[in-house]
Prior knowledge:
Elements: H1 3-14, H2 18-37, E1 42-44, E2 48-55, E3 58-61, E4 68-71, E5 74-81, H3 83-88
Antiparallel strand pairs: 1-2, 2-5, 3-4
Amino acid sequence: MTKADLVEKMAKDADIAKVAAGKALDSLIDAVTRTLKKGDKLALVGFGTFSVGKRKARTGRNPQTGAAIKIPARRVPRFSAGKTLKDALR
């Protein structure tokens, strides 16, 4: 499913215009992004929790040359599915 497909489904299910559904989805994405940028968690009960994880710096290998490269530490987004979502997939 693409973003356009999701916007269309949201508009149909909520009986609103696609423009309004698009703005609502953009607002959700923006809220998740801003929350994670601050390093906070965002929990949607039943759906899941978005959080920020940390990866340590490490040494990797360039697959073409085999040369060692340094991979810097970084923050990465994480998602943990909630019970309702997990149960729906069984």
